[in-house]
């Protein structure tokens, strides 16, 4: 059966990757409830460790992740979601990717565009 091994760990890492460009957009965590909600809706759901609740990505901002493909690693303990990022931003800070900072030549710089102002979206 194609299913993560939630017996190993209750929360598994889930990587969201842009299906069109291959860019890694974010890392979150899934439990079995999030996995099932993702399969049922075709949109990414995660488990919020800070709020201790199921989290529909984009439920507040409208920046949902439409799942195009799901992959599991060889141990079935990491999920890779190939997604279409609706609204252009995966990061709650307004960036296209949560990995918006890069260390290059000893300097940290932003390497992902700002797509929205979080103050406007999360009032």
TrEMBL record:
Entry-linked SUPFAM superfamilies: HisI-like
Every copy of the Phosphoribosyl-AMP cyclohydrolase domain together lies at: 26-100
Q: Where does Zn(2+) bind?
A: 74, 91, 98
What's in the keyword line of the UniProt record?
Answer: Amino-acid biosynthesis, Cytoplasm, Histidine biosynthesis, Hydrolase, Magnesium, Metal-binding, Zinc
Give compartment(s): Cytoplasm
Cofactor: how bound: Binds 1 zinc ion per subunit.
* One BP term from GO: L-histidine biosynthetic process
Pathway, per record = Amino-acid biosynthesis; L-histidine biosynthesis; L-histidine from 5-phospho-alpha-D-ribose 1-diphosphate: step 2/9; Amino-acid biosynthesis; L-histidine biosynthesis; L-histidine from 5-phospho-alpha-D-ribose 1-diphosphate: step 3/9
Q: Which InterPro entries match?
A: PRA-CH, PRib_AMP_CycHydrolase_dom, PRib_AMP_CycHydrolase_sf
Superkingdom field = Bacteria
Which GO terms fall under molecular function for this chain's record? magnesium ion binding; phosphoribosyl-AMP cyclohydrolase activity; phosphoribosyl-ATP diphosphatase activity; zinc ion binding
What residues bind Mg(2+), as annotated? 73, 75, 77
| Reported cofactor(s) | Zn(2+); Mg(2+)
Q: What is its EC number?
A: 3.5.4.19
One Gene Ontology cellular component term attached to this UniProt record is: cytoplasm
For this protein, what reaction is catalysed? 1-(5-phospho-beta-D-ribosyl)-5'-AMP + H2O = 1-(5-phospho-beta-D-ribosyl)-5-[(5-phospho-beta-D-ribosylamino)methylideneamino]imidazole-4-carboxamide; 1-(5-phospho-beta-D-ribosyl)-ATP + H2O = 1-(5-phospho-beta-D-ribosyl)-5'-AMP + diphosphate + H(+)
User: Where is it chiefly localized?
Assistant: cytoplasm
The family assignment reads: Belongs to the PRA-CH family.
Role: Catalyzes the hydrolysis of the adenine ring of phosphoribosyl-AMP.
Subunit structure, interactors included: Homodimer.
UniProt protein name: Phosphoribosyl-AMP cyclohydrolase
Organism of origin: Desulfocurvibacter africanus PCS
Q: Which lineage ranks, top first, belong to the organism behind this chain?
A: Bacteria, Pseudomonadati, Thermodesulfobacteriota, Desulfovibrionia, Desulfovibrionales
- The gene is hisI
């Amino acid at each position: 059966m194609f299913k993560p091994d939630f017996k190993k760990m209750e929360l598994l890492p889930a990587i969201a990757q842009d299906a069109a460009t291959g860019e890694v957009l974010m890392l979150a965590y899934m439990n079995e409830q999030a996995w099932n909600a993702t399969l049922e809706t075709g949109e990414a759901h995660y488990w919020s460790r800070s709020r201790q609740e199921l989290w529909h990505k984009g439920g507040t901002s409208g920046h949902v992740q439409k799942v195009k493909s799901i992959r599991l690693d060889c141990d079935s303990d990491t999920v890779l979601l190939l997604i279409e990022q609706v609204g252009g931003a995966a990061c709650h800070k307004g960036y296209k990717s949560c990995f918006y900072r890069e260390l290059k030549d000893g300097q940290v710089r932003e390497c992902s565009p700002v797509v929205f102002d979080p103050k406007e979206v999360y009032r």
